[in-house]
Amino acid sequence: MLNQNIIRVLSINLSTQEIAVKDRKDLFEYLGGIGVAAKLLDETVYYDKDALEPEQPLILATGAISTIYPVITKVAAVFKSPLTGELGESYAGLRL
User: Fold this and answer.
1) Which of 24, 58, 67, 84 sits at 20 to 30 Å (Cα–Cα) from 2?
2) pTM of the model
3) What domains are defined for the chain?
């Protein structure tokens, strides 16, 4: 996807086992993986339900330059925090 103004989003519903891939141009304006993940969480989270309900989404996003510099890749996990009810985030990284 290098040199293209799109973000590819993979959606997996574990309850129904449905998989969908969408190319979204509207997400390109958000900064990095955490910006895209925060926007996707805002679109899909159930604000009126508890954070630990099975319907709540878990968004995993890679950084913006992971395809260029694979040794600095990070993955952000974004979710509705069970502690605060607000945005929760966690990061993982690996260097090969």
Assistant:
1) 58
2) 0.81
3) 7-93 (3.60.9.10)
